[in-house]
Amino acid sequence: MKSRREALKLGLLGGVVAVTGLQQGAGLVGGVHAEGAEGPAPASPSTLAANNMPVPYRAVFKRPPELVPYETGLDPDGQPFARYSLSQRLGQAQIANGPSTTLAGYNGIFPGPSIQVQQGTRTEVRISNRLPAQGLLYSDPFNTVTHLHGSASLPQYDGYANDRTAPGRIKNYHYPNWQAARTLWYHDHNHMLTAQGVYSGLAALYTITNSLEREQLPQGEFDVPILVSDVMLNADGSLGYNDNGHAGLWGDIIMVNGVPWPTMKVKPRIYRFRFLVGSITRSYRFSLSTGDPFYVVGTDAGMTPTVQAVSSWRQGTAERYEVLIDFRKYKPGQSVELRNLSNKNNVNFANTGKVMKFEVVADAPSPRPESRSITSIPTTLDPGEHPTKAEGGLDTMSLTPDMAVARRTLRVRREGGEWTINGDTWDDVEKSGFRKCFANPQRNQVEEWTIVNESGGWFHPVHIHLIDGKIIGRNTNGGKPFAWENGPKDVFYAGENEAVTVLMQFDTGKHEGGRYMVHCHNLVHEDHDMMVQFAVGDLENNDPITSDAPVVENTPEGAFASTYKPSYPAGT
Q: How confident is the model at residue 17, as a pLDDT?
């Protein structure tokens, strides 16, 4: 393990394509050109021929296909269940003009199939690793770990970084889905190679819905997933990869749902967009070319009690924001661009300020019966009573500092070339036999954690597994959360020299907890080696590596044929 770790530290893994093109000298942060810095902009990292480079707004918007379960029914206790099957395998994508790009995806596509479940329906997701023996971007085995980000899963189904599924094996993940309606996503979490796994294509959306959410917010055609990511391509269309000395990867091609800078046809209605940043490093500041507002109706962990109008918002890797855009005042033929104003310490290129374009078309009946817009922008929303109230669960946004039984600080730094949390890395956790814990709260206790960014010119979106958190303070913005942060969250953007304070309840539902991870969701930082763990209750509960280990795949390819719901018309 040591030799592999050292190789990764040095960036010398066979098969990695180093596409540098970054200017060295004045105006740099850690060797990377910062947004807004003086001096020449970095050269574009893609090496595609000019005629192969995708052009903004020429491609057609698409939605990921929605997977249908292969089996549904009721458990003996009357709880509904749904079973899904996915295979991780190579596939081809058309990102460049001309050459295709080989990706590793769930069912061979990027993004992978979306899954939508009704709150209270237990799901089993059978994930078969049918990838080749060697990774696309590294020489190590193509092991995978699947994390359903935003789910209060048992530790053995939470995507613990060392719970690896090797090629030729499967793992059946169990998800309780008792949490309130929200946007989640599932992605690879294989330690030291998470960045390459997600960048290669192992990412997809997963949503929980309920009657309250359906009554108050747009549905169907007017409820749109927006997975934003960036990529660099080599001359032959293959994925380029360079983490710039473990600082991060910034591509020059912005994609929405795997399509570079698409154009979407929209009707003069109110639309809900579920924004997920699936980039492995880049953060975004979204805005509309018209200057019109977005209305924030949801954060990582569900609906916001109060709807907030914002002209732009800051969003880092793995954060989710649900916003409304009101297209009713536009006439057919008008267009609106979704732009990226960027944030400090990104690396920006000629077209990374563009994201996608909306083209308004005439109103018409929806092709799907469940589609429903709304007639006005709401001012408040009702997320409903906390779903585990009977087990002691509390509404996240009702938490107050006096409820906290402990106050802790996580200091994020770069030390000796490694990214650390309170001076520790996941290497320290591994060397302890996975016993070393940052904290050991008990089930349903409330704690107050402050994330302090002491790393200088870097931002860190910090993800705390299991919990939903309420931001109660920042040392910037007058000590208050930003306007778009007034809802439950599980990723907390710690900007340069920022400190963010969060209240959270360690609500495990009906189970007794176990060990969970805390890490930076700049996935390059996570892999080198910015991750620690905490335990809820007994550290021995639900061992995340041994409790339900992957097994050999004995089912032939195609035994679980993937069925998808009917798609929407092209470009909508």
A: 34
| Three-class secondary structure assignment of 236-294 | CCCECCCCCCCCCCCCCEEEECCEECCEEEECCCEEEEEEEECCCCCCEEEEECCCCCE
Query: In terms of domains, do 432 and 399 share one?
Result: yes
Q: Per-residue DSSP letters for 381-410?
A: ----S-TTGGGT---GGG--GGG-SEEEEE
Mean pLDDT of the chain: 93
Q: Is residue 204 part of a domain?
A: yes
pLDDT at 191 over 60: yes
**The whole model's pTM is what?**
0.95
Residue 199 sits in the same domain as residue 305: no
Q: List the domain range (segments joined by +) for residue 498.
A: 389-535
Query: Does residue 227 share a domain with residue 167?
Result: no
435 located within any domain: yes
CATH label of the domain that carries residue 499 = 2.60.40.420
More confident residue, 7 or 79: 79
Residue 30 pLDDT grade (very low, low, confident, very high; cuts 50, 70, 90) = very low
Cis upstream peptide for 111 (omega within 30°): yes
Domain count for the chain, please give it.
3
Please, are residues 524 and 248 in contact by the beta-carbon 8 Å criterion? yes
